User: Fold this.
Amino acid sequence: MPTEKDTALAKQSSSVLAAYLQASQAPAIQLIKKGKAPERLVLPPSVMRLLADILDQMAEGNAVTLTLSNAELTTQKAADLLNVSRPYLVSLLEFAMLYFA
Assistant:
């Protein structure tokens, strides 16, 4: 879960990023590290939108988990992601297979 400090920073960053995403040109991010020259980082628009979505969720105080869209999950891993028990998830899957088959 994000801390209060993380939530406040995400809220501020989200609003700044949202303004840039509405501009016609793709925004670039500049990485600054003490003692090093700044580096310009241009990300694909889809990544910038994903970053904005992550920041929006963190600003709301929500934890964010990323998973690959083509990743295969065991029923236990899926249950863990959904924060439900494995037997409950299996019963939902069995019901869905009967109902939608």
